[in-house]
């Protein structure tokens, strides 16, 4: 049985359908994870994630980590029961009243007490050694940030073979890209970094997407961005970005064409990128 199977019964379920004993268990375990002197801040951001949030927090509540940690949350103007879940499960949380992923990430970063800040997306489930493995990477000499990989939750609409090939191709591309352009291999759902350096660089709030890659770019002058390939740091998530392109094959075609166009520049460092007009917040 896969490590994440335990959490799937409450994934994509309204909070009202989560068993009371599960709620009590997650609340108690989350409280046990909280340290008054954390080395790492695990920062959850959520906007209308009621159906996926409980599974995410349950996986965080069962982290096996030798480092002291805290788990905090940010609600970005949810209209469902997201904020209520944070409250019911006893998680320290704050509402960010300006919409946007950058604002939500920044809200968490500003409240973090840990030396390291670990991004968490509310629609994602994390393996039991995730936090420990990411902190291990950050503790290495010269490392200022770390990014890892993720898989998609298997379902009837996507073949196992198709997912395996898709993820293998994507992982290989991200790995090759990470040598010279690690900022392009960073994804917010699996990204961790030095808290004080991130505050110094800043998280962009004027763009729709890519705030984490922009932060990674700003961190590069201070040290190395580690690319973590360990299964211990491989999260699982839904098909949000993939589904926007249609089928899995459609998504592969779109990303393959984009990767081939940028193949030549992948092996050369870059210190500046031009913003795309459609990515700027008006």
UniProtKB/TrEMBL annotation:
| GO CC terms in record | plasma membrane
Q: Does the keyword Cell membrane apply?
A: yes
Task: Output the PANTHER family linked to this UniProt entry.
Answer: GLYCOSYLTRANSFERASE, GLYCOSYLTRANSFERASE 2-LIKE DOMAIN-CONTAINING PROTEIN
Report the locations given in the UniProt record: Cell membrane
Organism superkingdom: Bacteria
Alphabetically ordered keywords of this record: Cell membrane, Glycosyltransferase, Membrane, Transferase
Naturally occurring in which organism (per UniProt): Alistipes shahii
Major location category of this protein: membrane
Q: Which residues form the Glycosyltransferase 2-like domain?
A: 42-152
Question: Which Pfam family, any one, appears in the UniProt record?
Answer: Glycos_transf_2
**Taxonomy-wise, where does this protein's organism fall, top ranks first?**
Bacteria, Pseudomonadati, Bacteroidota, Bacteroidia, Bacteroidales
Keyword field contains Membrane: yes
Q: Which GO terms describe its molecular function?
A: glycosyltransferase activity
What name has this protein been given in UniProt? Glycosyltransferase family 2 protein
